[in-house]
Amino acid sequence: MPPLAEIIGLVVELAVPARAWLLPPVLAPAGVYAPQHDTALLTRAVTAEQPGPGTEVLDLGTGTGAVALHAARTGARVTAVDISWTAVLTARLNAARARCRLRVHRGDLTAPVTGRTFDLVVSNPPYVPAPEETPPASGPARAWDAGPDGRALLDRICADAPAALRPGGTLLLVHSALCGTEATLSRLAAAGMRADVSDRVRIPYGPVLTGRHEWLVARGLADGSPWEELVIVRAVHA
């Protein structure tokens, strides 16, 4: 284990083939969201945009930095942001291990890059509906819980994205259909962006959603199926 890993807690290397996930192996300490299906789906969407040298990319809620590193390996100039210091340190460590140039800032969504614009903004934010009104400020659930409708971060990103994008720039946003895909499309359209669903995949419920299945059904957010649809919303700044 690299010495720096010791200062950010227990680190586990993901035993997932990089080719299958389109991702380089990364370290994921306790409390930082480990790459999963949504990470892979977002990475596939980034690949489709064909970033390269000269492309300015912003990754909001970078976590381990996996998606940011994938973009950086194309030669793009990548800036990553996360509100968690543990995530910031993890992304920096993973960038050093991968020998990739990555600027990582701690802050709340676009706050650290106010006044800057990018060609491509990507985000895999917390989006899991949760019984608590306020998303947690610490602990593992901070990486996925997002209020009763799962939109605590999604709505803010929809509102803030245009100011962070250059004319013709693109936003790639991954989330669960449980949060309301049409709501995301409507909010982005209201913000002056041309948005649609560019990719989707159905996956079985993981442990968190399985534990909340009855609550989700009672709130009308889910039916009786133990399957979740993940979507990529692609929006272009006019």
Describe this protein with a few key phrases.
8 helices; 238 residues; alpha/beta; disordered N terminus; two-stranded antiparallel sheet; 7-stranded mixed beta sheet
Short description, anyone?
The protein is built from eight helices and nine strands.
Protein described:
- The chain is an alpha/beta fold and 238 residues long.
- Helices cover 29% and strands 26% of the residues.
- It is built from eight helices and nine strands.
- It has a seven-stranded mixed beta sheet with strand order 5-4-3-6-7-9-8, with helices on both faces.
- The radius of gyration is 17 Å and the shape is globular.
- It starts with 10 loop residues before the first strand and ends with a strand.
- Mean pLDDT is 89; it is low at 1-21.
Lay out the secondary structure.
Layout: E1 11-13, H1 18-21, E2 27-29, H2 37-49, E3 56-60, H3 66-72, E4 77-82, H4 85-98, E5 103-106, E6 118-123, H5 154-164, E7 165-176, H6 181-190, E8 193-204, H7 207-211, H8 213-218, E9 227-237
Parallel strand pairs: 3-4, 3-6, 4-5, 6-7
Antiparallel strand pairs: 1-2, 7-9, 8-9
Helix pairs in contact: 2-3
